[in-house]
């Protein structure tokens, strides 16, 4: 067996991309080399640069290239509101709604005892220090609505209440544009329970 | 507007991947940085290495890292059979069928006068030199069954016949596993015309 050629190595490495199997990896590699070699070089450099430069904000754990991220340093934001999310990608999703002007705390995971992920792994101590600054008044729990995300929210809510802080959770309900016929019963049930008066 | 962060640069660069829009690029970037930074580094290096090392075989134009590719140098192959394909990816597809033991010639394109791609761009002169070696007896035209691929095959077939060489074309017909009900009429018509006696 000869050593891998650089083309074979590229195909192997492309499989690290989410959702890319052997066949797609091959297609991507050939596409880049055939049509757009300068883009391939640029992507290679961007990957190395980002892997080396991007680290976690000392205050909220999100991705940043400096000690404390831009959001945490923004004086326009309301420091009494703290939104707790599982990942930097989740933070970005909340941010893109343009409706939240408070600060964030990124757990970098969710409680999952079966996978050995306990309070320590989700930066629980750091979160307690963060909310004990006397400025945070309400913590919005925006973990996912999966079993693990819900368990994490429940656990954090208990802890927050014990410290006299207000904990809230994102509303569940029918998605915007959703038709009741195609929405699952559990979601409709929650939408009925969480209904608001007009 | 501040300069792009390395994360934003990575998201931009990822859009060079085929089929990746702004949203997928974002998801891929966050996935790599959250879950698999060593794979990101490895992919970055593989891209730079392949972009720098991979060039075209002097004989058949396919991707290689040496002057003449492995396939062209393989003494086990039948040099009297030459398969003409549009791209290295097409060559790989034919190769993976394990049914063809001749050699290849990669056009690196197909005739497309509207896009300014004429005989020169598809290495026509080089193909003529290649088939004039006195060894090639049959040229299998395996360009795509698109309008442009068909036109290219037609053009090459004329040229080959004028030089007394045998030109053949891949068969068209019902795909393996195909059900007539779901196959288009044009394909069935070709399958009837190209039927073989049992």
UniProtKB/TrEMBL annotation, chains A, B:
GO terms for molecular function: DNA binding; zinc ion binding. Coiled coil: none annotated. Residues 80-175 form the Toprim domain. GO terms for biological process: DNA recombination; DNA repair. A zinc finger (C4-type) spans 57-72. InterPro entries: DNA_Rcmb_RecR, Rcmb_RecR, Rcmb_RecR_Znf, TOPRIM_dom, TOPRIM_RecR. Keywords: DNA damage, DNA recombination, DNA repair, Metal-binding, Zinc, Zinc-finger. It comes from the Bacteria. May play a role in DNA repair. It seems to be involved in an RecBC-independent recombinational process of DNA repair. It may act with RecF and RecO. Belongs to the RecR family. HAMAP family: RecR. This is Recombination protein RecR. It comes from Pandoraea thiooxydans.
